[in-house]
Hints:
This protein has about 280 residues and is of the alpha/beta class. The protein has one domain (about 10-15, about 25-265): Metallo-dependent phosphatases (Purple Acid Phosphatase, chain A, domain 2). The chain contains 5 helices and 13 strands.
Amino acid sequence: MGVLLVCLLCVQCGGARPTGPTGSPGAAQVFVGAGDIGECGSRAPQATALLLDTIGGTVFTLGDNAYVRGTREEFRDCYEPAWGRHKSRTRPSPGNHDYGSAGAAPYFEYFGAHAGPPGLGYYTFPLGDWQAFSLNSNGARAGAGSAQAQWLSQSLASSPTRCAIAYWHHPLFSSGPQANQPRMRDVWRILYDFGVDVILSGHDHSYERFAPQDPDGLPDPDRGIRQFVVGTGGAGLSGFVTVQANSEVRLSAHGVLKLALRADGYEWEFIPVSGARDSGSGLCH
């Protein structure tokens, strides 16, 4: 059982009014993107943006949008020339490098209403028959008693829908050098309890797909959440250090993850700039 057809919560409660093209119920929705993107001096952000040029739908980002400190100049010079041309259809999430500037102010200024209420960094919107949650994994926002966690629980409980996806920067599970990020375990547990189907994260500059699992990393083919790490948007690539349990596929390549979100399930395809692809499908809970 999945999640919310969200009510329009007030800004004071941490909610966000859905904005932009979200598609109509019944139609498959394309959701495509990556994290760790705007690195000046690298050709990779432009290469992954060229992939986006050929793919319709809604674009997501998984944080660290502009390196190294998320300044206005870095958004202008490192993100805008590549992924900036897709800004009108982008639904971002913030990373630790975006918070290299106080309060991630340039991030919120650059993306405007598409980043949700200013200063919060979390919001929700419908994607056809799915509900999407862009969350903030930075600082104290991830804790069980945080305003974000309370808002998330209330949102998920208010009006359930079969299929849902959540995304943020720091992955709970990763075989890369950044390793597992337990700061998001409480949020993951909320999502798990409400039957969310897919989680996307970045932070490690690689692609990794996990089998459905619970918040403690135990296999759960019936109720577990499938996590993807997609830190492949343009920053320098990293390899893998300690392979985590339930890790199914690991690729070190720049590229984007394309999801086709259907009424009862989803299909995924990792599309690299060059090299091996990964694809498959799953059903909603």
